[in-house]
Design goal:
Blueprint: E1 5-9, H1 15-27, E2 31-37, H2 40-53, E3 61-65, H3 71-88, E4 94-97, H4 108-126, E5 136-140, H5 144-149, H6 154-161, H7 167-182, H8 186-214, E6 219-223, H9 234-239, H10 257-264, E7 272-273, E8 279-280
Parallel strand pairs: 1-2, 1-4, 2-3, 4-5, 5-6, 6-7
Antiparallel strand pairs: 7-8
Helix pairs in contact: 3-4, 4-8, 7-8
The structure holds NADP nicotinamide-adenine-dinucleotide phosphate (NAP).
NADP nicotinamide-adenine-dinucleotide phosphate (NAP) binds at residues 10-11, 13-17, 38-39, 42, 67-69, 98-101, 114, 140, 142, 224-225, 227-228, 230-233.
């Protein structure tokens, strides 16, 4: 019998994370999935809907309670997954850092904590579980990252596109962003709130390069799912009085392709991919269908 490919997907109770779990269940019968969710009730509801959509999938799913903004919660989730793997004599095949937020009423720090520090600490606590030479990590970032870098300061651009970027430099930039927010007026805060999502995703694309350099035994890449209709993006359509389709949003199932490509196909490491599964630059937008980035 083929050994199960075990994969953790964070923020998998809804939206793109849920769609990734569903696609893996349907398309890759050898997978066993750890469905990450920060809330117990939402995790039960997610497992119930997955098992009703994909009959017989109960034995291929484990709910994992995990808040990626909290290091203790990440560590507890890693211990839980470690014992589940030990029981089954398996290693971890993949981690998908999908959990993300676009905005927080508490300010920019929470967005950075979830979108950038989350993937950093998840890898820190899970790297020893990943199977050497085989393991995969996919950081779900966004085209908002390249868009942000196409119009940020020269200094930020230089730091976040440097192939030798260090975590210290990324962290320093995040601290500066938070300090700037704390010291700004209400109108400046509004602008920083609208920029923090792109900034946090640009930091996570840089983090991906740094993680790939530091952990050469596994393949670590980032990708955007595309513009997808979820609870995250629906308010954008509502604010503009348009339907998600009029806005060009696609269904969650269509947002799974780049992640599944990076999990399952033969790929290099340390790169960022567009929603069409094609390698893309991290400092300017590459539309689907355009030539691949080769830098
Ligand atoms: N939708 C798009 O067009 C689009 C485009 C580019 C990139 N993305 C990225 O795709 C990923 C998924 O987004 P989505 O559109 O599917 O959004 P979504 O429907 O809002 O789902 C976000 C998921 O992340 C979870 N989450 C948020 N904070 C968390 C935390 N601290 N710990 C653990 N889980 C947390 C949410 O859990 P709760 O239900 O508990 O809140 C939810 O499961 C995000 O990283 C997002 O930035 C989305």
């Amino acid at each position: 019998m083929k050994k199960a490919k075990t994969i953790l997907i964070t923020g998998a109770n809804k939206g793109i994370g849920f769609a990734i779990v569903k696609a893996l269940l349907e398309q890759f019968p050898e997978t066993h999935l750890f469905v990450g969710c920060r809330d117990k009730h939402r995790s039960v509801a997610a497992i119930n809907s997955l098992t009703s959509i994909v009959p017989g999938s109960e034995s291929r799913l484990d709910a994992i309670i995990m808040d990626v903004s909290n290091r203790d919660s990440i560590q507890n989730a890693a211990s839980q997954i470690e014992s589940l793997l030990l029981k089954r004599g398996l290693r971890l095949y993949g981690v998908v850092n999908n959990a993300g937020i676009m905005y927080s009423p508490t300010g920019v720090e929470e967005v950075i904590r979830v979108n950038t520090l989350g993937p950093k600490y998840v890898l820190e606590y899970f790297i020893h579980l990943l199977e050497p030479e085989i393991g995969r990590v996919v950081n779900i970032t966004s085209a908002a990252g390249p868009n942000y870098l196409s119009r940020c300061s020269d200094r930020t651009h230089k730091i976040l596109t440097d192939q030798e970027v260090t975590w210290k430099h990324i962290l320093e930039l995040t601290k500066e962003f938070i300090l700037q927010y704390q010291e700004s007026s209400d109108s400046e805060k509004e602008l920083l709130n609208s920029n923090v999502y792109g900034f946090s995703k640009a930091c996570t694309n840089a983090l991906t390069m740094q993680q790939a350099r530091s952990h050469k035994t596994v393949k670590i890449n980032a990708c955007t799912p595309g513009f997808i209709e979820t609870d995250m993006t629906l308010p954008i359509a509502q604010n503009q009085g348009k339907s998600p389709q009029e806005m060009g949003m696609k269904a969650p199932a269509e947002g799974t392709a780049s992640c599944i490509h990076l999990l399952m196909n033969d790929v290099n490491t340390g790169h960022y991919f567009g929603s069409d599964c094609v390698r893309s630059p991290i400092d300017r937008y590459r539309a689907p269908g355009m030539p691949a980035f080769e830098g």
